[in-house]
């Protein structure tokens, strides 16, 4: 590259090259290094790319009243072109329901799953049901639904 010039170089990175190396933050960290021939000076730059993580859909059904049974449904579709193994889903809500965990040994690519649980709210007021999904290939997947429980 000549003096006072820039050059753009595109590098294609395939998902298969980094999927098994991702950690909780779901970020790719690129470090670019160059050397100026005339001075032997090393120049370094870095760039972080945050990957989009899918969301869980959380829905409630039933009468939002204290001590009346309701249902919560969590939906997820595997967006990856690889199977997900040892998948743990968790749902809980303060004052609504204690933590419940479900394990799926395998979710094939493009496959959707639906998990429905019943719960009985124990106190009135606004609260949130929070669902999360965790597996070695996909981290920090979550969703939530707000409910307002009446007497």
Would you kindly provide a written description of the structure presented here, covering whatever features stand out?
The model has no long low-confidence stretch (mean pLDDT 89). By secondary structure, this protein is mainly beta. Strands 6-5-8-9 form a 4-stranded antiparallel beta sheet, with no helix packed on it. It has a 3-stranded antiparallel beta sheet with strand order 3-4-7, with no helix packed on it. It contains 1 helix and 9 strands; from the N terminus they run αβββββββββ. Helix content is 3%, strand content 55%. The chain has one helix at residues 15-18, and strands at residues 27-35, 42-50, 57-61, 70-77, 84-93, 97-107, 112-119, 125-135, 138-149. It is elongated, with a radius of gyration of 23 Å.
Protein structure class: mainly beta
User: How many individual β-strands?
Assistant: 9
Low-confidence parts: none
**How far is the first residue's CA from the last residue's CA?**
72 Å
Strand order of the largest sheet: 6-5-8-9
Biggest sheet details: 4 strands, antiparallel
Summed up, the helix count is 1
Task: Give the SSE layout.
Blueprint (H helix, E strand, L loop, with lengths): L14 H4 L8 E9 L6 E9 L6 E5 L8 E8 L6 E10 L3 E11 L4 E8 L5 E11 L2 E12 L2
Antiparallel strand pairs: 1-2, 3-4, 4-7, 5-6, 5-8, 8-9
List keywords for this structure.
9 strands; single chain; 3% helix; 151 residues; three-stranded antiparallel sheet; elongated; mainly beta
């Amino acid at each position: 590259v000549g003096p006072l010039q820039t050059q753009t170089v595109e590098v294609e990175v395939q998902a298969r090259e980094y999927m098994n190396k991702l950690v909780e933050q779901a970020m790719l960290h690129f470090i670019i290094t160059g050397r100026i021939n005339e001075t032997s000076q090393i120049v370094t730059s870095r760039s972080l790319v945050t990957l989009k993580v899918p969301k869980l859909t959380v829905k409630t059904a039933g009468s939002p009243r204290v001590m009346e049974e309701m249902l919560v449904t969590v939906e997820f579709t595997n967006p990856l072109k690889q199977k997900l193994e040892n998948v743990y889903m968790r749902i809980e809500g303060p004052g609504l329901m204690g933590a419940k965990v479900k394990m799926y040994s395998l979710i094939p690519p493009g496959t959707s799953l639906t998990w429905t649980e019943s719960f009985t709210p124990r106190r009135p007021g606004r609260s949130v049901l929070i669902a999360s999904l965790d597996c070695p290939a996909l981290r920090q997947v979550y969703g939530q639904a707000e409910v307002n429980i009446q007497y």
